[in-house]
Amino acid sequence: MDEEAxxxxxxxxxxxxxxxxxxxxxxxxxxxxxxxxxxxxxxxxSKAGGNGRLGSYQRLEFLGDRVLGLAIAELLYAAxxxxxxxxxxxxxxxxxxxxxxxxxxxxxxxGPHLLLGPGEIQSGGRRNQTILADACESILGAVFLDAGYIxxxxxxxxxxxxxxxxxxxxxxxxxxxxxxxxxxxxxxxPIYDVVERSGPDHAPVFRIAAxxxxxxxxxxxxxxxxxxxxxxxxxxLEREVLGLTPPVIMETSADVGEGNRPDV
Length: 264
Description:
Layout: H1 9-13, H2 21-28, H3 35-41, H4 58-79, H5 85-96, H6 98-107, H7 118-122, H8 129-147, H9 149-160, H10 174-184, E1 191-198, E2 205-212, E3 215-222, H11 225-242
Antiparallel strand pairs: 1-2, 2-3
């Protein structure tokens, strides 16, 4: 390559431009009348500055959690007319849990749009399951304020597929359910190994693979090995039993060297 045509090392390290909010709105399925509600829904407390918690998505997350619960309950009530209260409660718990909300946020590709402080960026905040789950709920809260319950419910119905039972069977966590599933097919018990450990010592992030012989591994991420293993096991079960394909979360150069540069 000609020296004049080759980009400089500084240019290669420069952060890629973030996609516009219209891209996220299209994925979510709602064009905001008040786009500042969406900006607030994407603002982590680490980026809130002088406004502290009131300038972050936390209040919207509180609201969105209640909107999500009501919408899921209403949709399940209609989808399963023969289900009793216990069955409906189990299904609801599976759909509103942190891992499910994080998967929805990942499907929307919320990560690149999040407004994070430098510390959260460096520790992988754009892929952090808790932050993604919080952002999912805060976006639903923002939609509710912008357009009302019917609009928010339509998004929940599209993104959370209430007709699918995503909860583990009663009395079993995902790891136990996966072990039972493997043994029922004459396979060795699942093996879990740490693929990656990132983040500071006080806030580690573990990426763990759940491996079952003859089956593609599932990869879970969490603030502890136990939570990451549970997520990895759940993803294998959802793929092999329910036929669900988890979204792929890509890390881009926007996660490196952003400092205090505005995220939107």
